[in-house]
Amino acid sequence: MCALLKVNDLRVKYQTFEGVVHAVNGVSLEIGERETLGLVGESGAGKTTTALSLMRLIPSPPGIIESGEVFFDGRALHELPEDEMMQVRGNQISMIFQDPMTSLNPVLTVGLQIAEVIVAHQGVSSAEAMRRAESLMEKVQIPAARSREYPHEFSGGMRQRIGIAMALACNPRLIVADEPTTALDVTVQAQVIELIRELRDELSTAMMLITHDLGVVGEVCDHVAVMYAGEIVEKGDLEQIFDHPMHPYTRGLFQCVPDIEEENSVIQPIDGLMPDPFHLPAGCRFHPRCPECLEACRTTVPPLSERDGHSVLCHLYAEGGARG
Ligand SMILES: Nc1ncnc2c1ncn2[C@@H]1O[C@H](COP(=O)(O)OP(=O)(O)O)[C@@H](O)[C@H]1O
Ligand SMILES: [Mg+2]
After folding, report:
1. I need a surface site. Which of 48, 116, 199, 276 has the fewest CB within 10 A?
2. Cβ atoms within 10 A of the Cβ of 61, count?
């Protein structure tokens, strides 16, 4: 099967006054038609940089895409001129951001903003666009009459639903949602996730869902990629990652999830912090925090091992390794 989105060896750095941040270091991933990939990892892992880079929305300067190929439905996005790329954004791939306030214009009514996207991408009349905007608002469970209100008149959860309506305005084939519920109250998070899941199913879109919440991944995703210090350290389908996590980092992430069914469950966070992005460790980038660190991990970059579509970047699983 030909993947809808295919990213090969993406490398992105930020050139700052303090030095060079190697934010994304050779990321490869695929998302099939109607598939949802969860991209998980702690803050600073490079998740947002990955998403922005494949949309070619990385701020430059300081961001520089050093290398990488991005194919969408067989088309090489990394080679498209900017005007064609603009058509792809919105018509084919759209984004939902963490904080909807940053993507909404404070001085325009929300109805007009959604309608603007529709006019720009679908070339329909303003009246028709407004009608479609109102029906999208109802789809995200906001009364159409509120289309004449401004972003500040809505609660955080409602603004995010408007952000979702905007992302859906052009019937995208892929939605990239970057921590869509992180900025919301816990009680609202579940509703917004449920809405995203319903709309994805109804519209048959594929999705990349960026989150640090494994609970959300378990509810929504069918594939998972775990990111650490700019690399995907483990990748597989939901069962592979949840039932048989391999990388010590992935196992550590699961130990951070409180088990509500287990009365005496203890949350065991992973020791240490993400490495200083200016000075990434040699060998395996996770080795200073790894409870199973071997001699080779300190000096040698781990090889990628793969079986049945479940891949891991770790010396333990290399040929001749403890679990290889
Ligand atoms: N505009 C920027 N300028 C300099 N460094 C940046 C910029 N944006 C992100 N970074 C750095 O790149 C790394 C990856 O960041 P990011 O992609 O935002 O990670 P995540 O989304 O996983 O939290 C971090 O070390 C972060 O500090
Ligand atoms: Mg981020």
Report:
1. 276
2. 8
Q: Comparing C-alpha atoms, which of 28, 27, 37, 32 is closest to residue 238?
A: 37
Domain ranges in the chain are 5-92+173-263, 103-171
Atom of ligand 1 nearest to the CA of 42: 22
- Residue of 18, 48, 176, 280 best suited for mutating to test ligand 1, as the one with most atoms within 8 Å of CB: 48
pLDDT tens digits along 127-142: 999 999 999 999 999 9
Pocket test for ligand 1, best of 10, 11, 14 (most atoms within 8 A of CB): 14
Q: Which superfamily does CATH assign the domain made up of 5-92+173-263 to?
A: P-loop containing nucleotide triphosphate hydrolases (3.40.50.300)
Ligand of minimum distance to the alpha carbon of 62: 1
The lowest-confidence range among 101-110, 204-213, 303-312 is 101-110
Q: What is the pTM of this model?
A: 0.93
**Token pair belonging to 175:** 């939605």
pLDDT digits (tens, 9 = 90+) for 168-189: 988 899 999 999 998 888 888 8
Place of tokens 């214009």: 105
Spatial separation of the C-alpha atoms in residues 11 and 138, rounded to whole Å: 40
Cα(225) to ligand 2 centroid in Å equals 15
